[in-house]
């Protein structure tokens, strides 16, 4: 597990440079005392590992900019990809406050030659806009949701895709969460496109921290949402991380078909394929304990497999530790 004694650690993402695994994570000082205050003090930290178990913290990747800027409140969740010329791109959420004190989120990026020293591009490249996405002007949600960019190369070689946590401008308030979408020819200029899912009476208020992957030949979408932000029909499941079987990495995605991959004690599930043997693992951050208090920290890898048409966490060796380990509390396991 990766955690810091003096800071809360929560959302995170990975990069693999072929030699080391890189973990980028949000963190904020425990001196704030209130864990809910961490969101407005978030910086992007960085750690490296050879085995996905033992992590070494290195220099931070990003901090918020000076006012006024689109990221002058905090730097939030993103993803990291490498361009054909070798340049690394770290896409991230920039958070700022509107005049009424509500949060506005936009997407920016930074570049690096070595995954260590990052240079911000400056202005945001994407933000929520009509007619496809809800903005703060609707007054129906507590923020302008447009965050958590997940960037990946088009499977057919046609540029790059970005999936975004966004909301539709119509539909039930707690069912408007959609998979936002944008496309780029070069990772620098981005074209906003319609969402890849629809709002629903069986949906979610926010489809957070999306990721797509092809696990053992089957495309799947992961996202996170807690019961308090979902439609009533979803609340009994008490899911934290959700999975949606898909026909391709680029959707469309049937959010009504989502099923829980973890309960609410684990959040922001991420899939990562181990380099040496191709095995797939799920990670998550520890969200709340049995008393409902925030915990923090990124779990060790949890093996996943397909069972009866669903992706599940399975019991077995989490990595090269020499023992069989059951999934942590919060992972929804299936018998082998």
Question: Which superfamily, in CATH terms, is the homologous superfamily?
Answer: Glycosyl hydrolase domain, family 43
Bulk shape: globular
Percent range for helical residues?
under 10%
Structural class of the secondary elements? mainly beta
What is the CATH architecture term? Answer: 5 Propeller
Structurally, the number of domains stands at 1
In N-to-C order, the SSE pattern is EEEEEEEEEEEEEEEEHEEEEEEE
Please report the number of helical segments. 1
Number of strands: 23
CATH topology name, in short, is: Tachylectin-2, Chain A
Give the uncertain stretches in residue-range form: 317-324
Mean pLDDT across all residues, rounded?
95
State the major sheet.
6 strands, mixed
Structural notes for this entry:
Keywords: Glycosidase, Hydrolase. The protein is an all-beta fold. The protein has one helix at 232-235, and strands spanning 7-16, 21-29, 43-49, 56-62, 74-82, 88-97, 103-112, 119-120, 126-127, 143-144, 146-153, 160-167, 177-184, 191-193, 208-215, 218-224, 241-245, 259-260, 266-273, 280-286, 302-307, 310-314, 333-334. The strands form 5 sheets. Strands 5, 6, 7, 8, 9 and 10 form a 6-stranded mixed beta sheet that branches. Strands 19-20-21-22-23 form a 5-stranded mixed beta sheet, with no helix packed on it. Strands 1-2-3-4 form a 4-stranded antiparallel beta sheet, with no helix packed on it. Strand 11 (146-153) and strand 12 form a beta hairpin. It starts with 6 loop residues before the first strand and ends with a strand.
